[in-house]
Design a protein that fits this description.
With about 200 residues, this protein is of the alpha+beta class. It has a domain of about 120 residues: Immunoglobulin-like, CATH 2.60.40.10. Strands 2-12-11-5-6-7 form a six-stranded mixed β-sheet, with no helix packed on it. A hairpin with a 3-residue loop joins strand 5 and strand 6. The protein is elongated and about 110 Å long. The N and C termini lie far apart (about 85 Å). InterPro entries: Ig-like_dom, Ig-like_dom_sf, Ig-like_fold, Ig_sub, Ig_V-set, Myelin_P0-rel.
């Protein structure tokens, strides 16, 4: 039971609902990261890595009552999170994004209270020259066509069910007629219980 409890309470790191971010060349981009733990933390260490090798931010947090302090960072990275509020937010902003900044950003968190087990979450950054406004016409046509086909399919299935229901009812009706008529015939012809009446002739 204790083992299951520690697993349930393990530190979790998240970058939000989506793990992809798109940024304009020369703009600033937010790289989100939050963590949760139900056993608290002390002297927690967190780092951000670019493409698994280059450390771009290194911070420490004494306790829940104190804000993180900087250990080391890339000059273009700014810490924008907070850990004394509701969420343990350790997000960063990457300034003046360049095409070479596109890639994988991993947020690592290590809590000494959990035997220094390390947890992480990854976000992928794409850098573009300009944000293209998607032409939704084709999408709308596709959605319309697919929606129409689904509608037709549902209608077809409903009609099929109704037809099958009617056929079943008709067949059930016929069966009832057959049963009652055959029952009547047997009784009228004196066939009911005829097997029981067919006794062997008494032996002399």
């Amino acid at each position: 039971g204790v083992h299951a409890f520690t697993i349930a309470c393990a530190l979790e790191v998240s970058v939000g609902k989506t793990n992809t971010v798109m940024a304009l060349n020369n703009s600033n981009v937010l790289l989100p990261c939050t963590f949760t733990t139900c056993i608290g933390f002390q002297d927690l260490v967190f780092t951000w890595h670019f493409n698994s090798t280059e450390m771009i931010y290194h911070g420490k947090i004494k306790t829940k009552a104190s804000e993180p302090f900087l250990v080391a960072r890339n000059p273009r990275v700014e810490f924008v999170g907070s850990t004394t509020g509701k969420d343990n937010n350790i997000s960063i902003v990457l300034k003046n994004v360049e095409f070479s900044d596109a890639g994988k950003y991993t947020c690592h968190v290590k809590n000494p209270k959990e035997k220094n087990a390390e947890h992480n979450a990854t976000i992928f950054l794409t850098v573009v020259q300009k944000m293209v406004e998607a032409d939704n016409t084709l999408t709308l046509i596709i959605v319309g066509v697919v929606g129409g086909l689904i509608g037709l399919l549902i209608l077809f299935m409903l009609i099929k069910r109704v037809v099958l229901f009617i056929i079943k009812k008709t067949q059930d009706g016929k069966k009832e007629c057959l049963v009652s008529s055959s029952g009547n015939d047997n009784t009228e012809n004196g066939l009911a219980g005829s097997k029981a009446e067919q006794k062997a002739p008494p032996k002399a």
